Amino acid sequence: MGELRLEELSAANIAAANALSLKPGQEQYVTPVSYSAAAAVLNPATAWQRVVVDGDDVVAFVQADFDPDAESEEFRSILWRINVDADDQGRGIGRFALNALADEARRRGMDALYVIWEPGELGPEAFFLRTGFQPVGETEYGETIGKLDL
Known about the structure:
alpha+beta, Aminopeptidase, 7-stranded mixed beta sheet, 4 helices
């Protein structure tokens, strides 16, 4: 693995972000990057979207939202998506992206970062638990709400 770096999602890298592959069975847990890009257009003041680049290759996408005025605490500082290319999973890229996101949350004065995930054998739960998120609730749809104290 080369030196990882973050870049803002842009016209120059969105095609590569959209081409990130998934392992079989992960499709039901991940929304396409193009949906995420649309969210930034609707909420440019609060959306935070980055790609992780290894050398010249986009290897991951991460999207969060920072809205200190959100009614629900979990929506004030929330990780919405993290997609690591199938061939690059297990190399620490997701942890790198999450650490960068946590740094950004701290910089913005947040003391916690939230995430919502759908339980399932091939879902992201194990990753979120390994990286320090603790389950703190459940949505009305049965999804887990996780919290990472910063």
